[in-house]
Request: fold
Amino acid sequence: MDVLSDAISTMRVGRPSVSLTTADPSWSTEVEIFGGARFYVVTTGGMQVTGADEPAVTLAAGDAVLFPYGTAHTLANVTDGTARFLAGAYRLDQVRPHPLFQNLPALVRLLAGADRHRGLQASIDLVRGELDEQMYGRDLALPALLDVLLVHLVRACLADSAGPQATGWCVALDDKVIARSLRAVHEHPADPWTVESLGAHAGLSRAAFARRFTAMVGQPPLTYLTWWRLTTAARLLQATDIPLSAVAQRSGYGSAYAFANAFKREYGISAGRYRQQHRTDRRHSSEG
Reply:
């Protein structure tokens, strides 16, 4: 998968939720901290959103706001009439967030516009249609549409964060050189990458590549490579029953011993114990 798809997939847990809420004049509510991301899209009227340690933002019809870290906030109708808005939530594993998500602001306002974030607006329309029309297949279609909507929300956040002075993932994914190396790491984590070979793949010298990658991604190339390899290993341990030696090989470790040491150093427990814990968690979830 591509980098953004991988970043979301490694963090997503459970099923997303969404509702269409009607707010009378003077309506307001306080929303507690949440283990994931929340979003709101105003469909009628206007709303004011105030985040912790953030200035209040006013949303008109078509505008959206995203709380990537689920921080506490307040919602209020700021019109004399009825307001309606979509309210959605995604559970995300924040114990080990992808660095891309750590670059996002705590509150992101996304303004509507004919030429802005067309994919986002189209996704919003599809989600709203499923909620309004109560069509057959809604229980299957809606979660899939919400996953698509999350991609467009994050894309819009990254696009709005970009600018002449911007750094970080909002520019890394659009930088052809760095994006090429990131994609190579994500698609082939088991390859014997070095800073020199990644630089050659991206079309830069070793030193120039290392400087550019570190400045944009916030980590040296091999530090990110190690992080992604162990993240890949954790996903394999959770989702498959393949032997630990195969997990080690697929995640770029030449021996099970080297993998075992690296995994325990990163996660604080052995790979086998990690797999056992997640099997227990999945069993309890299915029984509940």
The radius of gyration is 21 Å.
